[in-house]
Amino acid sequence: MSTENIPSDSKQLNGPKFLKSEQWDGYPNPAWLKKDKKKVTLLFNFVERRKSFFLQAYFHRHGFIYKDLGDHIYEDVRWGKEYGNRMECNPMYFTSGSIIKNLFQIQKETGLTKEEIVNKYVFLGGGGQCGPCRYGMYPQEYLKAINDAGFKGFRILIFSSDIIQDPMPKGSAFTFSLAFKIDILISVILADFIHIAECALRPYAKDKEQALAVLSKAEEILLEAFKSPLYLIKLPEALKKVSKMIADVPRKNLKLPKIYVTGEFFANLAHNEGNYNLRRFIMDEGCEVFPGLFTQRILYDNWRRTREAIRGIKFAASEMERKFHQTALRKQNVSTSIVNWFYKYFIKSFNPESFGGKSEILDLDHLAELARPYYHPEIFGGEGNLEIAEAIHYANSVDGFISSKPFGCMPSSGVSDGVQAKIMSMYPQLNFLSIETSGDNEVNILSRVSMLLFKAKQKISLG
Ligand code: SF4
User: Fold this and answer.
1) Residues 47 and 130 placed together within one structural domain of the fold
2) How far apart are CA 221 and CA 225, in angstroms?
3) Domains held by the chain: number
4) 265 CA distance to ligand 1 middle (Å)
């Protein structure tokens, strides 16, 4: 290639001077320091109400001033779209919109200026990498939307993120300590347990309202036990107590169609308007639905990182790189053992079999092998091979199978659903439906779900 046309002054390669700009390092996210701990309220939520409800226990025990922002609602999407970038997947709009909606609400209720709110509040929430897709941009998108809404310099604390919170600044009021990580795991497990109980009771209870009241009472009992510094001793006792309360709820003796829901993590596991309250709709329409367990999703994340580490060791270009992946592998193995240990420790006391609860955690190696011929398990991003593997795993044991994903979700709509066509041709008995959530369009989506449920009911009535 001739070099005669390349300017001798390399700066000219960047274009005319008026177009030149400085390197952009992202939005500022100032540290929240220990000295301000008692002057600041920590706002938080995490996918659905029950998880953040139980997480209150951690903030209570550690002396924070906190406010649980609870469930996502449709209004969150409107706020998220107003201040967020175009063409994001809707979990992003739900989560960023929820923060902005609440900040404006606080402004209205307290009369504080935006600057005062920035000084007196911080937000803590999830924003992990779910692979090569847009989820990895959550922290910057939160900050962009919040700053554009006028809360300049508002501080956020994001867990499961490789992007901005690791390591936390020195002297921070809040750190992602081991104690916090264990407590968030326990919060997820407890939320899963109550969800298991709801899936077991709701379609069968003689009095649905009474059953739901029992579940609310159970949540309060568990939260009280979890708030105690002796929670590792108190929670098993509390779990035994609520298990008995749940088992005592009078139930109808019915044979209902069984529906399995899979899909992108938010569209599958936000048991709120984030997925049109999908499982509740299915149950209220007279079907049984398998619970969607967040613990299973955490284990998949660990499984994925383990596979990445094994691959990293195999193809390491240097000794240093190999050691890096070996350390990562050890960490993931420890993390997986901790998750399994806590789940098993608490489930013994909760005893879901006593009230017909389904609490099975699927073997991820087995699922990977089921999916392998159709979806390579080491193609990561979103739920990876899970949706395909679960369709095969449940093909002969459920009456309906729904794959739920946000509109435009790359791994789930773009890849998994393409492969599902092959799975459906192999298992024509699989009553399959793919739906895309968008934060609106509820009637259309749920009417499509109704058609699947109708077919499922026909299936069992025909024997
Ligand atoms: S998995 Fe889909 S919905 Fe979830 S962040 Fe990635 S692209 Fe968005």
Assistant:
1) yes
2) 6
3) 3
4) 8
Assigned token pair, 273: 């308007």
Task: Give the nearest ligand 1 atom to 133 CA.
Answer: 6
Q: Please tell me the residue having the least CA distance from ligand 1 atom 6.
A: 133
Of the residues 124, 143, 174, the one at which a domain ends: 174
Closest ligand 1 atom to 413 CA: 2
Given pLDDT bands bounded at 50, 70 and 90, which one contains residue 330?
Answer: very high
Q: Name the residue at shortest CA distance from atom 2 of ligand 1.
A: 409
Q: Whose CA is nearest to atom 7 of ligand 1?
A: 409
Strand partners, 246: none
Quick: pLDDT tens for 84-107. 988 888 888 999 999 999 999 999
Same domain, 48 and 169: yes
Q: Which atom of ligand 1 is nearest to the CA of 89?
A: 8
Cα–Cα distances in angstroms (integers) from residue 137 to residues 85, 127, 156, 345, in the given order: 11, 8, 14, 35
Return the residue whose CA atom lies nearest to atom 3 of ligand 1: 409
94 Cα–ligand 1 center, Å: 13
> What average pLDDT does range 186-202 have in this prediction?
98
Are 309 and 389 contained in the same domain? no
For residue 85, the enclosing domain spans 34-174
Ligand 1 neighbour 84 (Cβ under 6 A):
no
The finding on whether 138 has its CB within 6 A of some atom of ligand 1 is no
For the segment 355-370, what is each residue's pLDDT rounded down to a tens digit?
999 999 999 999 999 9
Residue of 410, 413, 415 to test ligand 1 pocket, by largest number of atoms within 8 Å of CB: 410
Task: Specify if 18 maps to a domain.
Answer: no
CA of residue 188 to ligand 1 center, whole Å = 21
Pocket lining: 130 vs ligand 1, CB cutoff 6 Å = yes
What separation in Å is there between the alpha carbon of 52 and the centre of ligand 1?
A: 21
120, 152, 174: which is the final residue of a domain?
174
Q: How confident is the model at residue 412 (pLDDT cuts 50, 70, 90)?
A: confident
